[in-house]
Amino acid sequence: MKNLILFAAAAISTVGCAQTKEKKEVPKFVKEAFQKEYPNTKVNWDIETDGFEAEFTMNGKDASANYDKKGHKVATEIEIKENELPAKASTYIAMTYPNKKIKETAKITDDKNIITFEAEISIDGKNSDLIFDASGRFVKILKGE
Q1: Chain-wide mean pLDDT for the chain?
Q2: What's the number of CA atoms in the CB half-sphere (13 Å) around residue 62?
Q3: How far is residue 120's CA from residue 110's CA, in Å, rounded to a whole number?
Q4: Spatial CA neighbour of 71 closest among 38, 40, 26, 25
Q5: Sheet holding 73-79, edge to edge
Q6: Residues 115 and 109: beta-carbon distance below 8 Å
Q7: d(CA 6, CA 12)
Q8: Which of 79, 85, 73 is nearest to 35 (CA)?
Q9: Which of 7, 49, 62, 83 is the most buried (most CB within 10 A)?
């Protein structure tokens, strides 16, 4: 009886180990949508909860394009220099977060051609994104986890 129990336990653990998690990949139609807009561009893909992010370099700058699960591009983000932020945004950051250093800045264009700007700073040891509209007016903060 003891051997039967050991055999059953071994069989169950073997079956559990044999099961593999489904490997998620970026669908071909999403990759094709990216290649159509950015031909011959080297890309690194990230799978996100609401779609896919293509990270690449454009004109010497870090960039990313976000796609929904149907393959529609929803936004493009391009790295910019800190002095390319709208003046109003720079003033807001200096006044509201005087001791914070800006880590990264970006210009984001969504699928409706609406432009926003992003400035990343550290708050309480976590990276957070300050979002501004095209004129530099503060919109919201996306706190890091």
Answers
A1: 87
A2: 9
A3: 19
A4: 26
A5: 44-48, 51-58, 61-68, 73-79, 104-110, 115-123, 126-133, 138-142
A6: yes
A7: 10
A8: 73
A9: 62
Give the sign of the dihedral formed by CA 32, CA 35, CA 40, CA 41: negative
Q: What is the mean pLDDT of residues 7-16?
A: 45
- pLDDT given for residue 45 in this prediction: 97
Residues 90 and 126 reside in one and the same domain: yes
Nearest to 42 by CA among 20, 58, 21: 58
Provide the domain limits for residue 59: 26-74
Q: Is the same domain home to 99 and 64?
A: no
Q: Mind listing the pLDDT tens digit for each residue in 86-101?
A: 999 999 999 999 999 9
Please check whether residues 108 and 139 belong to one and the same domain: yes
Structural domain includes residue 130: yes
Structural domain contains residue 127:
yes
Which of 106, 108, 141 shows the shortest CA–CA distance to 126? 141
**53/108 Cα distance (integer angstroms):** 13
